[in-house]
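Question: Hello, beginner here. Any chance you could explain the protein record under this note? Any guidance would be welcome.
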Amino acid sequence: MRGDRPPIPVSASLISMDSSDQETEPFLSAETVNSLPRDVAGWLQTALKPRERVASCLFSDIMPNGEFGENWTFLTDQRLFVLSPNGAPDRAEMRFELPVAQIEDGYVKEYVGSSELIVCGGNAAHEVARFTFSSRYEANDLCHRLKSMIRSREDGKDGRPSALPPTRRPQHRCAKCGAPLRRSGDICYYCIDSRQITMRLLAYLYPYRWQAALGITLTLAMTGMGLAPPYLTKILLDDVILAGQSHLLKYVILALVLTHVARAGFTMVRSYLMQWLGNRVLLDLRVRVYNHLQLLPLTYYNQRQTGEIMSRVTGDLTRLQYFIAEGFQEILINLATIVLIAAILILLNWKLALLAFAPVPLIAISTAVFGRRIHLVYH
């Protein structure tokens, strides 16, 4: 690879041709050819003969000696040739060339972790290009066009390649935003409506809405009781010890004890309720996922490993269970804590409260600005 341009994308779906070109026009348009890397387009223009038209091209990333490298295979209406960089940015070496009239067949041979494009002609089989699986669809497209040219020549026609069927190449980019996808048919995480997903998850709580409402009530009660001891400590210091009203000491201590006992009791009931609710939601999710897996075609299982599917059924569902049963409750606890603390501070001394809230805008702006950068670093 050369340093005058960024590396070739591993999934070179743009390299072969635009999908609309594939379905309507058997030869590449000038616009599609110009979408190749600048130096590759220059090599191609230099190598093409007058009135020679390109039908397909393939980027291969394995050299004949087995090392990683860069090769470009082009199929035209006259010949099949391979260009390899030779160190000069404006020149390339033609490593292989064979007229289309001498080609009898072409196919892709699969290996472990790689594939190879082989063409037969002149009583010999030629190993044209080797590549990783990222380019296998472009190789199949090239073979499809090559075979159509051979059939057209045998039928006495002009040898024009036929257009590719629209379903031959899976789309590895989101049709809405163009973001790359791990595999064809995957969900684009940039286009997911997080609010809609949250509402779908919370819908699993609807059959247990009364238990969930009781859990939310206990959560809010626990949050309020957690803020009571600091206020009682203030009364103990200001109104009992400093004011010398020792007769109030027993009442303040009793209130502290009752608060901790009540909070411990609410915590125990809430933990049991949330555990029961989480297990019920997890059971419903697993049953629904299992029933859905029975309806999926075999191609779904061919494209995915068994461990990946098992991870979805076990690990992913466990995380969903945690969000529905615990994560949502923790969000409420944090929000309620912020609101109650702010209300108590304002009621006690609103001037001091405003002074305490002064750094909040700066913290919010810093979080918004640096949060995006930190998110990119972590992902």
Notes: The first strand starts at residue 54 and ends at 62. The longest helix spans residues 249-295.
